[in-house]
Give the backbone structure.
Amino acid sequence: MTDQKGMPALLLAGTRGKQDPVAQMAGVTNKVLAKICDKPMILRVLQTLEQAETVNKRILCGPSWETVEETFFLHTLVQSGTVHWVEPKQGPSLSVGGFLAQHPQDLPLLITTADHALLTPNIVDFFVREAQEAMVDVAVGLVSHSLVATAYPGLSEDQTNGDTIET
């Protein structure tokens, strides 16, 4: 349920297995454990959600329980109850669907990914407030490639595969 302090956030942190090139290059078992400026991506996003005024509960969907147990900061956050963990399904859409089926009381719900390392509390708060004000059932935040290319002129289309980049 949404209260005056915000809504729950579901953080998707599944894995592509051994084929994930980011995980392979970083020497980790899951892409979200790859470090950006000496901090794992997943920790960056968890901290962002903690600092966001519009988020009142952090729910981690994945990585595997084995990975949570082996990763000190994740295990500490989950064991303390600061972050709730749920088992991921086969892919993001099934993970979200499975969560919603078991936790309908957690609607409305912010959904983001654990590899969204550039997410900030201001972006989260802006997005949630705008979505609430619009009174829509679903809101999706996207940024066009041209906007990213303007903001980061050294970034080539090859580096993003021409894809839009989520915000």
About this structure: Residues 121-134 form the longest helix (14 residues). The helical segments are 21-26, 41-51, 65-70, 72-79, 92-102, 121-134, 145-151, 157-160. The longest strand covers residues 55-61.
